[in-house]
C-alpha cells in the first residue's frame, strides 16, 4: 500500500518542494508580521482616517477566503495592464496580506492590554506618539502577542499549501507531479503529509510552550 | 473590462449557484464537525485509558496538516485504497475531519472552564459521571462555545473555496468558469465573488457578535 521507493526515487522533488515551502513561509512570516503591526498601529492611532483604513483592511480581508486574496495577485495584475505575477510570488503575497489581518488583530489586542496610564505618562514626559509606541507600548505588547502570532505562523505553514493550486512549486505541486509520473496517489500525498507534520508539529509545540510560559509570568 | 457582459443573467445565476453549493457544503460540514468535535473532546476530557491518547494524537495530527492536503487526499489518494468519493462528499468528509479536530480543541477549552467544585458537588450529590457530564458540565460548556463555533463556521465557509482544486462547483470554481469565457470578465467575476463572500461572512460575524453580547 505504501510505496517507499517513491521517497528515494523522487527525493529531489520532495526536497525542492520543501525548500520552496520553507522559503515562502519565512518570507510570509516576516512580511505579515511587519504589515500586521503597521495595520494594528493604524487601528489605534489617534487619527480617525487611519483607524478607518485599518478597520476596513481587517474586516475585508478576514471575511474573504485566502484563495480569493491569492487570486487577486494571480489574476488581476494583467487586467490592469501589469505583467503577470507567477504562482510562487502571488501565493506568498497572498499569504502576507491574508495573515497580516489576523496578526493585526492580535497585535492590537496586545497594545490595548498595556495600561493607558503608561501612554499618558510617556506623552506627558515629552515623548512623541511614535516614540511612545516604539519604546513604551510595543516592547510590552510583544510579550502578550507572541503566542497568538506563533499560531498565525503555524497557519502560514498550513495555508502555504495553497501555492499548489496556482503552480507555486511547493510540496502540493510536486505531489501532483509525482502522482502523474507514477500513477500512484496514496503514497506521494502521504509523504507530503509527513513532511508538513515535520514543519508544523515543532511550531505547534513551541507555541504551546510559550503560551504556558507567558500565562505563568502574568 | 466588461461588467455588462460578465453580469449577464446566466453568469450571475451560475455564480449564485456556486454560492449555494458553498453554503450547502459548509452547513453540512459544520453540523457534522460539531457533533464529532464534541465526541472527540469528551473522550479526551474523560481520560479514558489508551483511547483518550489516541484521540489526542489524532486531533494533534489533523490540526497540523493543511486542509488542502486533506481535501486532495480524500479525493485522489483514497481511491488507491479502494475508497471512491465524488467531489461533494470528499469535500464534506475532508472539512469534517479537519474542522472536528479544530472544534474539539474549542470544546475541550469549554469543558475545562467548568470549575472542579461543580463536578465534585454533582458527584457527591449522587449523580453518575455520565449524568454529571450531561446535566452539569456540557450545558454550561456549550453556552461558552457558541461564539467561537460561529467564527469557526466563518473560517469553514471560507475554506470550502479550497474544494475548487477538486472541481467542486462552488463559488470560486464557478467564478473561474465565468472568468475564463472572456478576458474582460476577470475583474467583474472576481469582484462579484468577493462581494458574496463578504456579505455572507459579515452577516455571520454580526450574529456572532450578538451572541457574545447576550452572554456578557
UniProtKB/TrEMBL annotation, chain A:
Positions of transmembrane segments: 20-42, 54-75, 95-114, 153-174, 186-210
Coiled-coil portions: none
Keyword presence, Zinc-finger: no
Residues in the signal sequence: none
CDD domains for the chain: TM_PBP2
Record-annotated ABC transmembrane type-1 domain positions: 18-207
Record localization: Cell membrane
Keywords tagged on the record: Cell membrane, Membrane, Transmembrane, Transmembrane helix, Transport
SUPFAM superfamilies: MetI-like (SSF161098)
Membrane-protein topology: Multi-pass membrane protein
Similarity remark: Belongs to the binding-protein-dependent transport system permease family.
Protein name in UniProt: Glutamine ABC transporter permease
Provenance organism: Gordoniibacillus kamchatkensis
Automatic annotation (TrEMBL), chain B:
SUPFAM superfamilies (alphabetical): MetI-like
Annotated keywords: Cell membrane, Membrane, Transmembrane, Transmembrane helix, Transport
Spans through the membrane: 20-43, 55-78, 185-207
Gene3D superfamilies attached to this UniProt entry: MetI-like
Localization: Cell membrane
InterPro entries: AA_ABC_transptr_permease_3TM, ArtM/GltK/GlnP/TcyL/YhdX-like, MetI-like, MetI-like_sf
Keyword Nucleotide-binding in annotation: no
Lipid bilayer topology: Multi-pass membrane protein
One Pfam family here: BPD_transp_1
PANTHER family, per database record: INNER MEMBRANE AMINO-ACID ABC TRANSPORTER PERMEASE PROTEIN YHDY, MEMBRANE COMPONENT OF AMINO ACID ABC TRANSPORTER
Record protein name field: Glutamine ABC transporter permease
Organism of origin: Gordoniibacillus kamchatkensis
Amino acid at each position: 500500500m505504501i510505496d517507499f521507493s517513491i521517497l528515494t526515487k523522487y527525493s529531489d522533488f520532495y526536497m525542492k518542494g520543501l525548500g520552496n515551502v520553507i522559503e515562502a513561509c519565512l518570507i510570509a512570516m516576516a512580511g505579515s508580521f511587519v504589515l500586521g503591526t503597521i495595520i494594528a498601529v493604524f487601528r489605534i492611532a489617534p487619527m480617525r482616517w487611519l483607524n478607518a483604513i485599518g478597520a476596513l483592511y481587517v474586516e475585508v480581508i478576514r471575511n474573504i477566503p485566502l484563495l480569493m486574496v491569492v487570486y487577486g495577485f494571480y489574476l488581476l495584475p494583467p487586467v490592469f495592464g501589469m505583467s503577470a505575477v507567477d504562482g510562487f510570488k502571488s501565493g506568498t503575497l497572498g499569504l502576507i496580506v491574508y495573515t497580516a489581518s489576523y496578526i493585526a488583530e492580535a497585535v492590537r489586542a496586545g497594545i490595548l492590554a498595556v495600561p493607558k496610564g503608561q501612554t499618558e505618562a510617556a506623552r506627558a514626559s515629552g515623548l512623541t506618539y511614535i516614540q511612545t509606541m516604539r519604546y513604551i507600548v510595543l516592547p510590552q505588547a510583544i510579550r502578550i502577542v507572541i503566542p497568538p502570532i506563533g499560531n498565525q505562523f503555524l497557519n502560514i505553514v498550513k495555508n502555504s499549501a495553497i501555492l499548489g493550486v496556482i503552480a507555486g512549486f511547493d510540496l502540493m505541486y510536486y505531489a501532483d507531479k509525482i502522482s502523474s509520473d507514477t500513477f500512484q496517489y496514496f503514497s506521494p500525498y502521504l509523504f507530503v503529509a509527513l513532511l508538513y507534520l515535520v514543519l508544523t508539529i515543532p511550531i505547534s509545540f513551541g507555541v504551546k510552550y510559550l503560551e504556558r510560559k507567558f500565562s505563568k509570568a502574568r | 473590462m466588461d461588467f455588462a457582459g460578465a453580469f449577464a443573467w446566466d453568469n450571475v445565476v451560475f455564480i449564485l449557484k456556486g454560492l449555494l453549493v458553498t453554503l450547502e457544503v459548509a452547513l453540512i460540514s459544520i453540523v457534522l464537525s460539531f457533533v464529532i468535535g464534541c465526541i472527540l473532546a469528551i473522550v479526551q476530557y474523560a481520560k479514558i485509558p489508551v483511547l483518550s491518547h489516541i484521540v489526542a494524537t489524532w486531533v494533534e495530527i489533523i490540526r497540523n496538516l493543511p486542509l488542502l492536503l486533506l481535501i486532495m487526499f480524500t479525493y485522489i489518494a483514497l481511491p488507491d485504497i479502494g475508497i471512491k468519493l465524488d467531489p461533494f462528499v470528499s469535500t464534506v468528509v475532508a472539512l469534517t475531519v479537519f474542522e472536528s479536530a479544530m472544534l474539539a480543541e474549542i470544546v475541550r477549552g469549554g469543558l475545562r472552564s467548568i470549575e472542579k467544585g461543580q463536578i465534585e458537588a454533582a458527584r457527591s450529590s449522587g449523580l453518575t459521571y455520565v449524568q454529571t457530564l450531561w446535566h452539569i458540565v456540557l450545558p454550561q460548556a456549550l453556552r461558552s462555545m457558541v461564539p467561537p463555533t460561529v467564527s469557526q463556521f466563518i473560517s469553514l465557509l471560507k475554506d470550502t473555496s479550497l474544494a475548487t482544486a477538486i472541481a467542486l462547483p462552488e463559488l470560486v470554481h464557478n467564478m473561474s468558469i465565468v472568468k475564463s469565457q472572456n478576458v474582460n470578465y476577470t475583474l467583474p467575476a472576481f469582484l462579484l465573488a468577493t462581494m458574496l463572500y463578504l456579505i455572507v461572512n459579515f452577516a455571520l460575524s454580526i450574529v456572532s457578535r450578538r451572541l457574545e453580547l447576550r452572554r456578557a
